[in-house]
């Protein structure tokens, strides 16, 4: 019965959001069936469309898992955006400094590296850099929360600004190719590239940037599930999230679990850099994130902070991100903001259903 209820509320939230969104489209003077048809057909009309949708969903799986882990410990990580920015720059830095000669945006070969590592060393090193950088940036608000009681929401929000400004400064004044009008770093060495799935699956066209990071995201869903529900460490983390006082009485340190949860959350958010830097862009570019860190909150809420739910919710949001482009292009009155409207309505309904699904004694607790 509990599992049915956990599935029911997100489904009802999505249905209600589409109903309200349909009313908004009618008020704007357009046809909801046409708009929703474009939204769905652009993601499921062909194998190419499906691959593009999976590409859009991949970073949301990582950030959704990041927020979900923090939620399970009773924490709200608003800082996934900053964590993935720091991780992306760190990943690019390792790929530049240890990747050997690379071709810049002007088609010229440049060597920014100290020395060149083989791919089987460099790729894991870049991945490790993404996780370590994201984990450190997540651990900072965790430590401040555990040691000084400062609220993680305020800290993570402030660290977002610091992260984006810091990597922007380093990019602009130290790692940008001279003459480049875009605020982006030099390219990483080819040894740091991870393959795209069209190299193995011929039915995926070469214009689709879906890469091995998607498979890694699926693996991380399984790892996070095993960690949270099949290990002693995951049990302790969830126990603190359910009742810190009871957990402490049982011999579990809430302060330790807060730091661990925020560190793991930051590491998961940082893994966005693996797909974006090593698989898609091959450099760090300011503004590369489509607010994935913030969308991860919506993904975690819709997925009920469960890895399987996060995966399904990320795929759903991938449909919205992919489809809003076509809605904007092929409807007369509806813009791509429809996707943002639906996301906002879904969050509202999820929050409402979560409150009213509680018993009268717990209804005041969110």
Notable characteristics:
366 residues, mainly alpha, 1% strand, disordered C terminus
Between the first and last Cα atoms, what is the distance in angstroms? 21 Å
CATH architecture: Orthogonal Bundle
- Low-confidence parts lasting 5 or more residues at pLDDT below 50? 361-366
Count structural domains: 1
Number of helices: 14
How do the helices and strands follow one another from N- to C-terminus? Answer: HHHHEEHHHHHHHHHH
Widest sheet: strand ordering: 1-2
Question: Mean pLDDT score, rounded?
Answer: 90
Q: What do we call the CATH topology?
A: ABC transporter involved in vitamin B12 uptake, BtuC
**Main sheet: strands, sense, barrel:** 2 strands, antiparallel
**Into which percent range does the helicity of residues fall?**
55-70%
The helix-and-strand class reads mainly alpha
| CATH classification, class level | Mainly Alpha
**Approximate strand percentage:** under 5%
The backbone outline, from C-alpha atoms, is: globular
How large is the radius of gyration?
A: 21 Å
């Amino acid at each position: 019965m509990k599992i049915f209820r956990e599935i029911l509320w997100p489904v009802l939230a999505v249905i209600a959001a589409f109903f309200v969104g349909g009313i908004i489209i009618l008020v704007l003077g357009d046809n909801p069936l046409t708009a929703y048809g474009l939204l769905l057909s652009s993601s499921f009309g062909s194998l190419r469309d499906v691959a593009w949708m999976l590409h859009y969903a991949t970073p949301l799986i990582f950030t959704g898992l990041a927020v979900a882990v923090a939620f399970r410990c009773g924490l709200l990580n608003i800082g996934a955006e900053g964590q993935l920015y720091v991780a992306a720059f760190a990943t690019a830095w390792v790929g530049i400094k240890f990747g050997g000669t690379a071709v810049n945006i002007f088609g010229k070969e440049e060597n920014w590296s100290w020395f060149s590592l083989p791919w089987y060393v460099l790729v894991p090193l870049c991945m490790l850099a993404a996780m370590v950088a994201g984990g450190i940036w997540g651990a900072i608000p965790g430590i401040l929360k555990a040691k000084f009681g400062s609220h993680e929401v305020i800290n993570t929000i402030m660290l977002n600004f610091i992260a984006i400004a810091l990597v922007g400064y380093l990019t602009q004044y130290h790692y940008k190719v001279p003459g480049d009008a875009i605020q982006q770093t030099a390219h990483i060495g080819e040894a740091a590239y991870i393959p795209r799935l069209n190299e193995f699956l011929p039915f995926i066209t070469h214009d689709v940037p879906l890469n091995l990071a998607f498979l890694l995201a699926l693996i991380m869903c399984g790892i996070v599930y095993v960690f949270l529900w099949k290990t002693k460490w995951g049990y302790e983390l969830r126990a603190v999230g359910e009742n810190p006082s009871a957990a402490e009485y049982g011999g579990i340190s809430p302060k330790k679990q807060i730091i661990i949860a925020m560190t793991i959350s930051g590491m998961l958010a940082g893994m966005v850099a693996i797909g974006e830097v090593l698989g898609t862009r091959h450099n760090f570019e300011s503004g590369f994130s489509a607010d994935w860190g913030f969308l991860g909150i919506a993904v975690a809420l819709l997925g009920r902070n469960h890895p399987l739910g996060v995966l399904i919710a990320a795929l759903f949001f991938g449909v919205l991100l992919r489809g809003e482009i076509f809605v904007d292009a092929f409807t007369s009155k509806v813009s791509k903001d429809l996707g943002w409207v639906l996301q906002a309505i879904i969050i509202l309904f999820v929050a409402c259903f979560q409150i009213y699904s509680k018993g009268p004694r717990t209804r005041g607790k969110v």
